Description:
Blueprint: H1 2-23, E1 36-41, E2 44-49, E3 52-56, E4 62-68, E5 70-71, E6 78-82, E7 87-93, E8 98-107, E9 119-122, E10 128-131, E11 137-143
Antiparallel strand pairs: 1-2, 2-3, 3-4, 5-6, 6-7, 7-8, 8-9, 9-10, 10-11
Amino acid sequence: MTRLFIRIQLCMLCLMFILPCQAQIATWLVSPSYDKIDPIAPNMLRVMSQGKFGLMDYEGKVFLQCQYASVSKFCNGYSLVQDADGKLRAIVSLSGEVTYMSEDYWCDKQYPYFCEELLAVRNQRGIWGFITPKGAVQVPLRYLYACPFSCCF
């Protein structure tokens, strides 16, 4: 009985020295460069670095550098890229095509998505209209408020 007890103690002692040594062998082959990575589409990842967001695909191709306050999930084929104040900076398609805004637009927090290829936006004066995924004005900005034509369900 005592021999069995001694063997068990020796095995335990050996394991105490072997296991910690193996755990310390792991090292990073490639050091992490993002603070957070979220899948937001079948082929697209939202990445965050130092509090700013960007987009890349699963192969590592970067579509947007990490310099924006917000990058939305894809809805109806598009993601909206915005500043901290909600200003629309770019529109990204599922294929990775980025359209940068040439005008200053903001979208409603309740409807931050395209519906029937149109996005309800307002200008700096608070006048509403609709733009296309390419950023072109489709319905002139001359309304007091605008929301999607349908719910896209």
